[in-house]
Specification:
Blueprint lengths: L3 E5 L10 H4 L7 E4 L17 H9 L7 E6 L2 H11 L4 E7 L17 H7 L25 E6 L7 H10 L3 E6 L6 H4 L5 H8 L1
Parallel strand pairs: 1-2, 1-3, 3-4, 4-5, 5-6
Length: 201
């Protein structure tokens, strides 16, 4: 069966975020790179007004065959929700530097990313700063094999968050990238591609 990969970016909404890694994966694997309308520098879409609409955006691209979801940072919230909502349609997960599952990064000493984000993207949709999402009990219900990627130097989503998700997601494995920042997936794909490929094959 042909692999179908869905790449979900973080709050920057950039569809090219995952491309450096995706380009290193087999060319025969299908790859869809998502953008988030209204976030980062992306043009707004009147039909996208919150996280639920981003979930719907991804769902529309899901066909009959199971997919693999690769998600970074805020994208992990979307990926985890889809995996829980459609367990029969999501085969495997790769989650990088994310608070998916309601593990609040702030509880582990994370730096608040929102002031810098607002400075970099003043026109971004206001709902991205909403801190009310709660998935606290749901990670335990993720049944898909899940590969977790973390840096030991990420101040936005500390390694302790990854270790907690490793503890509560039943079928999960944690890979640590020494010295990387929050964007290590984009900047250091050669260091993680082997683990990703082995996880998805």
């Amino acid at each position: 069966m042909k692999r179908t990969l869905l790449f979900l970016p973080g709050a920057g909404g950039d569809p090219d975020f995952w491309r450096p890694l995706g380009d290193l994966l087999p060319q025969t694997w299908g790859k869809t790179y998502f953008a988030w309308p209204g976030l980062g520098k992306r043009e707004a879409d009147p039909e996208v007004n919150g996280f639920d609409d981003l979930v719907t955006l991804v769902e529309k691209e899901m066909k009959d065959n199971p997919v693999d979801i690769l998600a970074q940072s805020m994208g992990g919230l979307i990926g985890a929700r889809i995996a829980l909502k459609h367990p029969e349609k999501v085969r495997r997960l790769v989650l990088a530097a994310t608070t998916a599952g309601g593990v609040r990064a702030a509880d582990y000493g994370a730096r608040d990313w929102r002031p810098d984000y607002r400075s970099d993207y003043p026109a971004a949709a206001s709902w991205i700063s909403d801190d009310s999402l709660d998935f606290t009990n749901e990670p335990r219900e993720i049944t898909q094999p899940t590969l977790l990627f973390w840096s030991d130097a990420d101040t936005i989503c500390p390694l302790a968050v990854g270790k907690e998700l490793l503890r509560i997601i039943p079928d999960s494995r944690l890979v640590i990238v020494p010295g990387g920042d929050h964007g290590f997936v984009r900047d250091r794909p050669q260091e993680i591609v082997k683990a990703v490929k082995e996880h998805l094959e």
